[in-house]
Amino acid sequence: MTAEELKSGYVFLLDKPLDWTSFQAVNKMKYKLKREFDLPKKFKIGHAGTLDPRATGLLIVCCGKFTKKIPEIQDAPKEYWTEIKIGVQTESYDTEKPEILHQDIAHISEEHVHEVLGKFVGEIEQKPPIYSAIKIDGERAYNLARAGEEVEMKARKTTIHYIKDVKIDFPLISFLVGCSKGTYIRSLAHDIGQELGVGAYLTQLRRTKIGDYAIEDATDQFLNNEYRFEDL
């Protein structure tokens, strides 16, 4: 890899660690590349699809002229390994907020779980979580929610291409889900819980594919602890 190759266009597949924002990962990588290859201050770099801090997995970073590929990659279908916990909910639909609204799940059978999961395959409507980066009147929804303001999210259409490799170990359920751009897996977890009648939230999320790019080809070598966030 050379500075000229990076400026001409390069795609990196990163394995984003837990509790990192996508912005932090890109900034850390930008810092390291500029330092090692003596790149110009305005070197172009950006990611092709945000991962929540509580999610891990495939984060695609485009450099140089390949930043023009970002919209195309963002539009590609995604795949996630997903784990949810049923019988309880959280306000954020994931592990950011504490558990609330515990309910008994003794009556829930594996057959019923498979039946409910099947209902979500195809085109569906879902409301994004209030703890999301969507802007409402110019402000991020998560900022409004964390400030205690009431947030009303509008439903939007999305497509679940498949739910497969389902494993059930009550109260945990895991599966692979393939979906279109703009799908919120946290909302999917919440909606599955509502359909089951006992609530649910997302406990783990790992992005495994974006289009033809796969997590097996990703690396975390640019996200080691050689540089601190304070250095960025």
Automatic annotation (TrEMBL):
The active site is at D52. It holds the Pfam family TruB_N. Signal peptide: none annotated. It is an enzyme of class 5 (isomerase). GO terms for molecular function: tRNA pseudouridine(55) synthase activity. The keyword Isomerase applies. It catalyses: uridine(55) in tRNA = pseudouridine(55) in tRNA. CDD domains: PseudoU_synth_EcTruB. Its EC number is 5.4.99.25. Residues 186-218 form the tRNA pseudouridylate synthase B C-terminal domain. The keyword tRNA processing applies. HAMAP family: TruB_bact (MF_01080). Belongs to the pseudouridine synthase TruB family. Type 1 subfamily. PANTHER family: PSEUDOURIDYLATE SYNTHASE TRUB1, TRNA-PSEUDOURIDINE SYNTHASE. Responsible for synthesis of pseudouridine from uracil-55 in the psi GC loop of transfer RNAs. This is tRNA pseudouridine synthase B.
